[in-house]
Amino acid sequence: MQTKVLIVGGGLSGLHTAYELQQLGIDYILIEARDRLGGRILSQSHHVNSAVFDLGPAWFWPGQFRMEQLLDQLSLKTEIFQQYSQGESVFEDNQANLQKGFIGISMAGSLRLQGGFKKLIDQIKSKISSENVLLNSNLEALNKTPDINVLATIRIKDKPQQIECQHVILALPPRLGASSITFNPSLKPDRLTELTGIPTWMAGHAKIVVLYEKPFWRTLGFSGDAISHLGPLREIHDASAEVDGSYALFGFVGTQPYHRLNREEELKSLTIAQLTRLFGNQAQKPIAILFKDWANDPLTSVNEAEPMTNEHLSHDLSSVLEDNWDNKIIWSGTETASYAQRNNGYLEGALEASKRTVSLLKKWYL
Ligand SMILES: Cc1cc2nc3c(=O)[nH]c(=O)nc-3n(C[C@H](O)[C@H](O)[C@H](O)COP(=O)(O)OP(=O)(O)OC[C@H]3O[C@@H](n4cnc5c(N)ncnc54)[C@H](O)[C@@H]3O)c2cc1C
């Protein structure tokens, strides 16, 4: 196979790059190691009803203009709604003492997408040629040769294949790419150290979504927001779908990844006990529970013990991003968005990185 631009990673960043290259008429192939597009965007339903809940990102924020513009462009603006935030929030200390009306933790004002962010991925996917997208295709090695620009070795459904290309866009977490892809000639040792030192945003986190028949907490005057020092959930929010009447609470698990290993069922039952302490007995009867531990996902996290960090990268990456095989390789996941605009790690950062990459490609190909 041959292409001008090989995009590696079908998360929001890579998929958005494909969308823009398609519009510009620049030749590309996108490969994605998973059997689905979206990457850290993962919206799931449960067989009890058709409602969809986000196990990855759930929000974007006013002022994130790239997200706003894209949703508008894809006719999804009418699907945006505000995070539910009416009523009291709850604070629980490590002795299970509750303080109601604790202020300052609500995600009030943050914005969600009806049907989850998968809808954004599906909409972009519908605008690009399916023959340019290869799922179950894992990039293993990149070789720079004098006669061909770059030769990529990929494994498609366990069969090795090669793709010749002029540029490779690595639209994935730099730490993951630098530790899982073989570069020949190898990147400079200090460059590899810098790349593996960039934390992958939210890679160490796990999310639990608990579905209920009715939003009983709202009826009782609670917003669904809670902070707990007892756990297992550290931060809890209302996750209800807005239109179709499917109700849920979700939370981020507060324990480090190595404490979560093989404890899914235990964590689910501890979660129900916690929601009962916080919001009352009606929490005891969920209709379903969804769980996703991103630290155990080798296409996001480099190891199962990836620590949970809540810090966005706060230093300049420009030296790391420059001069990778004379710009034959371009790093382009959300982690590479500028720290100065505070977008790195976010969906908005995935779009910022993609737009930076596309403007480089435009200079070279148009
Ligand atoms: C639990 C959680 C909650 C979050 N909450 C929010 C939020 O509320 N708001 C917000 O703005 N952001 C949030 N984020 C962050 C947001 O999800 C990311 O910013 C965004 O999805 C990153 O997109 P990306 O395309 O840069 O990377 P990714 O989505 O990680 O995509 C990279 C893709 O590369 C693929 N890949 C990896 N290695 C290879 C390989 N060798 N070959 C081929 N393919 C490969 C992966 O399978 C993946 O599909 C959250 C993330 C998580 C995990």
Describe this structure in words.
By secondary structure, the protein is of the alpha/beta class. The chain has two domains: 1-35 and 135-200 and 312-366, FAD/NAD(P)-binding domain (3-Layer(bba) Sandwich), CATH 3.50.50.60; 43-116 and 202-311, Polyamine Oxidase, Chain A, domain 2, CATH 3.90.660.10. Helix content is 25%, strand content 27%. The chain is built from ten helices and 20 strands. It has helices spanning 12-24, 65-73, 118-126, 174-180, 189-196, 216-219, 257-260, 264-279, 318-321, 347-365, and strands spanning 5-8, 28-31, 43-46, 49-54, 80-82, 88-92, 98-100, 111-113, 133-134, 137-143, 150-156, 159-165, 167-170, 182-184, 206-212, 222-228, 233-238, 247-253, 288-293, 329-331. The strands form five sheets. The protein has a seven-stranded mixed beta sheet. The chain has a five-stranded parallel beta sheet with strand order 9-2-1-13-20, covered by helices on one side. A hairpin with a 6-residue loop joins strand 10 (137-143) and strand 11 (150-156). The structure holds flavin-adenine dinucleotide. Flavin-adenine dinucleotide binds next to helix 1, strand 10, helix 4 and helix 10.
Structural class: alpha/beta
What is the second-level CATH architecture of the largest domain? Answer: Alpha-Beta Complex
Principal-axes geometry comes out as elongated
Count of discrete domains: 2
